[in-house]
Design a protein that fits this description.
Elements: H1 6-23, H2 36-45, H3 51-64, H4 68-73, H5 76-82, H6 89-106, H7 115-118, H8 126-135, H9 146-154, H10 163-171, H11 179-192, H12 218-235
Helix pairs in contact: 1-11, 2-3, 2-8, 5-6, 9-11
C-alpha cells in the first residue's frame, strides 16, 4: 500500500471529523457532573466501569461528599461503600482521597486548570486531565481512551499504541478547537458502530475514509466496500 502523504491524511481526517459531527452533533462526555470537582470524581470512577453505572452512583456520593474538603475528611470505609458498584473501589477511594488532599494542600481547595498540575493529582492521568480541560475549563483536550485508541488505529490516523503518542498524532491533524469534540465523537462511534470485535462496517458512515486497519473477515470487508460504493455513488 502506498504511504499516505501528510496532506492527504489531514484532508481525510477533516472529512472524518465532519462526518462524525453530522452523526453526533452534541459531542459531550456522558458522565453527569456540575463542577470541576464532580467531573474529576466521576472520571476517576469511570475507569473500568460504564458511565451509566457511574451516573447511578454519583448522586448519593456527591450529596454526602460534595467537595474536596468533605472527601478528605470522609472515612475511607464510607467512601468505599458509596462507590462499591463502580469496581476497584479500594484503589479508587485512595485516588479520590489522595486527589482531595493534594487539591487542599497545593491548590487552595480548587481543582487546577492546567495539564501539568492535573496530572500530579493521585489517580489522574492525561485522559482524565483532558476530560477536565475540554469539558470544564474550556481548553483544548483530546481524550484517548480505549475507543479512541482503537478507532484512531483502525482509521489509519496513527500507528502508535501508547495513548500519549496517539494523542500527539491526532492533535497534529486537527485544529485545537476541534480536539475535544473529535475525541468524544470517536468514543460515541466506538460504542455504537465501530465495535472492537465485530465492527458494523456495513452501517458505518466513515467507511469511505476508513483504512480498516486490523479489521479481518469477509463480512467486514464486504460491508465496508458496499458503504464505500454507496458513498461514491452519492458523490456522482
Amino acid at each position: 500500500m502506498t504511504r499516505e502523504s501528510r496532506k492527504s491524511l489531514i484532508e481525510r481526517t477533516v472529512r472524518l471529523a465532519a462526518a462524525l459531527a453530522r452523526l453526533y452533533p452534541q459531542a459531550r462526555i456522558s458522565l453527569d457532573f456540575t463542577n470541576a470537582w464532580q467531573c474529576l470524581v466521576a472520571t476517576i470512577l469511570s475507569a473500568q466501569c460504564t458511565d451509566k453505572r457511574v451516573n447511578q452512583v454519583t448522586p448519593r456520593l456527591f450529596a454526602e461528599v460534595p467537595d474536596a474538603r468533605a472527601m478528605d475528611a470522609a472515612p475511607a470505609a464510607r467512601v468505599e461503600r458509596l462507590i462499591l458498584d463502580t469496581g476497584f473501589f479500594r484503589q479508587k477511594t485512595r485516588s479520590l482521597k489522595g486527589a482531595a488532599r493534594a487539591i487542599l494542600e497545593r491548590f487552595g481547595g480548587e481543582v487546577p486548570s492546567r495539564m501539568e498540575d492535573l496530572v500530579t493529582l493521585p489517580g489522574v492521568g492525561r485522559k482524565t486531565a483532558n476530560v477536565l480541560l475540554g469539558h470544564v475549563f474550556g481548553q483544548p483536550g483530546l481524550v484517548v481512551d480505549t475507543h479512541v485508541r482503537r478507532l484512531a488505529q483502525r482509521l489509519g490516523l496513527t500507528h502508535e499504541t501508547e495513548p500519549e503518542k496517539i494523542e500527539r498524532d491526532l492533535q497534529m491533524l486537527l485544529k485545537p478547537v476541534e480536539w475535544t469534540a473529535f475525541s468524544m465523537r470517536l468514543i460515541l462511534h466506538g460504542r455504537n458502530v465501530c465495535f472492537a470485535r465485530k465492527p458494523r462496517c456495513d452501517a458505518c458512515a466513515l467507511a469511505a475514509d476508513c483504512r480498516r486497519i486490523g479489521v479481518a473477515g469477509p463480512r467486514a470487508r464486504d460491508g465496508a466496500r458496499k458503504s464505500t460504493d454507496k458513498a461514491a455513488d452519492n458523490r456522482v
